[in-house]
Amino acid sequence: MIVLSASCGPVARGGGRGTASGGGSGSARGAYTAQCRGDFGASAAANEFETFMSATWEFHQAAVETQETLLNACQDMGRALEMPAAALSGSGPEGTREVCTRVAETLRTEWQAVGADTSYTVEIQTTPPRCEARFEAYASCAGRCDVNVQPGELEMRCEGGEIRGQCSGGCTGQCAVEVQAQCSGTCEGICEGECSQRGPNGECAGRCQGTCRGECVTDASASCSGECRGSCSVEWQEPYCTGHYDPPQVNADCRAACEASVEAQMECRPGQAEVIVSGGPGPEAQARLEKVRAAVRAGLASVQLVHERVERMQRSGRVIIDSMQNLPDAIRTVGVSAAACSAGALSDLQQSLASVSVSVEVSVSVSASVNANAG
């Protein structure tokens, strides 16, 4: 467990409760989406209720967007594999499952044919995606939800991960710098050469004898020009937690709502994916390899980004659904209209979580089909 106090970094203060707003596209669900993210008053119960409604909408939007991203990635991979358009037609969670399953099956078939030739070897190399749930966003949400919380005085615990960010003072721990050059530390990404250790998706996670494309991670005990991982002697700049936040001062229901909200709005960037061939494949094998290479480049990085995001959303979605059971007292205090909003929100959360669960399953299947016969 790592503790980050608000005094260690710039934190956005609550600045009042305000009106919740949702962004992005996605289908509206009647009165719930049109009215239930509005102003229910200034009471403590209203603050908490509004935070739940806002978090539900944000979670729904993120579930729709990630499912669409996954579908688009599978369709891009399928087109690179020269699959017929009819096989790539689909929509919604189940349509995404069907399209991505067909793409995964085609990839496995191509890999089996490629792997039958022993005159060459094929390796998948990736740089991992990165998703960042920002500390200041969580602190601001907690200040809106829980009247007893002052965001600028909030102590945050980073559970199941570590604190990372920019540090203008002394960094103690590790320093990660983006490079496309030789790396004297641990290469996290693609190694154009010999890598001493690899991660589960083929990424280099050790010493690279050659060129490292990704992040070069070295031990730090002074200044860090990249991302500091550990502790900072001055205020952090844009700190985030690689696990999940667990602030002890915030009540459990607000923690659930804010975690779902912040993880739904995580800033994510994709990594990279490459097919590395050693040896001399013949003309037929070369043609198959080019299709597989094009498919990997077209969509694997996006599939892995979706998996990184939805795996975290799946956990926070389950927690906020459980916390919805504690809302009846707040609903009675807020007013009659809140009851209909709560019912709509719970239904929406359950459907959104089901979509997220499909995305988790499908992203694992597609990634596995790429890695099945490589190496």
Q: Helix/strand-derived class?
A: alpha+beta
With strands numbered from the N-terminus, the spatial order across the biggest sheet is 8-7-9-6-10-5-11-3-13
Spatial shape = flat
Low-confidence stretches: 1-31
Q: Give the tally of β-strands.
A: 14
> Main sheet, how many strands, which sense, barrel?
9 strands, antiparallel
- Give the mean pLDDT: 84
In angstroms, what is the radius of gyration? Answer: 23 Å
- Percent strand equals 15-25%
Written as H for each helix and E for each strand, in order along the chain, the element string is EHHHEEHEEEEEEEEEHEEHHH
Helix count, DSSP H or I runs of 4 or more residues = 8
The total tally of domains equals 1
Distance between the termini: 36 Å
What is the percent of helical residues?
A: 40-55%
Describe the secondary structure blueprint for this structure.
Elements: E1 2-5, H1 30-35, H2 44-80, H3 92-115, E2 120-127, E3 130-134, H4 135-145, E4 155-159, E5 163-167, E6 171-181, E7 186-195, E8 204-206, E9 208-220, E10 227-232, E11 236-241, E12 244-245, H5 252-264, E13 267-269, E14 272-279, H6 283-323, H7 328-334, H8 337-371
Helix pairs in contact: 2-3, 2-5, 2-6, 2-7, 2-8, 3-6, 3-8, 4-5, 5-6, 6-8, 7-8
